[in-house]
Every structure is written in structure tokens, then in C-alpha cells.
Amino acid sequence: MPDITLINVESSQIHSIGHDPATKTLAIRFKNYKGEATSLYHYSNVTAEEFAAFRNAESIGSHFGKHIKPFDKKYPYVKVDAAPAA
Predict the structure, then answer these.
(1) What is the pLDDT of residues 60-82, one digit of tens each?
(2) CA 84, CA 52: separation in Å to the nearest integer?
(3) What are phi and psi of 3, to 5 degrees?
(4) Is the pLDDT of residue 2 over 60?
(5) What are the beta bridge partners of residue 41?
(6) DSSP 85
(7) Helices (H) and strands (E) in the chain, counts
């Protein structure tokens, strides 16, 4: 499991994102209903170009919902942890 540095983003549902181009792994930490950081997921097969499009999208949440989430065969994912370290 790669150790991926996360950057905070402006989104109502996504807290932070990161990418490891060597392993083509996208890391997404989501927010709970209070807006607090929660679960961290790693998505496979995400190229640097795809990550750049995601990172630079006008709406990161919408981009995720349209281009990544529906394609779990192309971008298989694993839950890395349930909450950020204190």
C-alpha cells in the first residue's frame, strides 16, 4: 500500500486527495455529514493525467461521481482506514 501525501480540497463530500503516479493509485479521504475527515480509499489504475483532470475539476465531487465512482471495474478500490490519525 503506497503512502500518499494528501492535499485538502474544496468539496462538500471530499476532504483531501493525493496520487502516486508510480503505482497509479488515487487516494481520496471523504467527509462525514459534519464535514469532518473520515474514511480513506485507494483507487487503482488512475493515471497522472486522470488525476490532474480530477484535481483541477471545477467540482471535485461531481468529477468523482461522473468519472471515477461509477467505474469500479476500471478503478477498483480498497478502504485503507476508517478515520484519520489523531
Answers:
(1) 999 999 999 999 999 999 999 98
(2) 24
(3) -90, 110
(4) yes
(5) 28, 79
(6) -
(7) 2, 5
